[in-house]
Amino acid sequence: MLSCNIRGVKNGFPLKIEADQVEETKVDFDADFLRQMYPKLEWKAFKDAAEGLGVSELPDECTEEMLDDEGFMRAFHHALLEVHVEEGWLICPETGRRFPISKGIPNLLLNEDEV
């Protein structure tokens, strides 16, 4: 997840996602990759972002034991790798500053007065 880097912002993580267009793309399942990614995620931020994109099958909390559950791993894989925001916005939780996402690429460039 990304955070807002505007000067003076103390609570810029996680950026909220407002998706206008979401696409799903099939990706080969790789359980080892998911096990390596899991410790790098802040689960609540990830789950909230996934729910904002219409992925509702993730649990509120996740433990390492769940990484052995096939059903959980398939849902995790889908949310992490197969759901993509094509058009929309990333929104700073503190300032409300909106960063556009166009053709799947977020533009996080700051204005001169925000640096």
Describe this structure in words.
The structure is a single chain. The protein has 115 residues and is α+β, with helices and mostly antiparallel strands. A four-stranded antiparallel beta sheet has the order 1-2-3-4. The mean pLDDT is 94. It has helices spanning 31-37, 43-52, 70-82, and strands spanning 16-24, 83-91, 98-102, 105-106. It has three helices and four strands, in the order βαααβββ.
Walk me through the topology.
Layout: E1 16-24, H1 31-37, H2 43-52, H3 70-82, E2 83-91, E3 98-102, E4 105-106
Defining traits:
115 residues, alpha+beta, 26% helix, four-stranded antiparallel β-sheet, single chain, 22% strand
What is the element string, with H for helices and E for strands?
EHHHEEE
Structural class given helices, strands, pairing? alpha+beta
Largest sheet: 4 strands, antiparallel
**Could you name the ranges where pLDDT drops below 50 across 5 or more consecutive residues?**
none
For the termini, the CA-CA separation is 20 Å
- Computed over alpha carbons, the radius of gyration is 15 Å
Kindly estimate the percentage of residues that lie in beta strands according to DSSP. Answer: 15-25%
- Individual helix count: 3
Mean pLDDT: 94
What is the number of strand segments? 4
Strand order of the largest sheet: 1-2-3-4
Using the alpha-carbon principal axes, give the shape: globular
Helix content: 25-40%
Summarize this, please?
This protein has helices spanning 31-37, 43-52, 70-82, and strands at residues 16-24, 83-91, 98-102, 105-106. It is of the alpha+beta class.
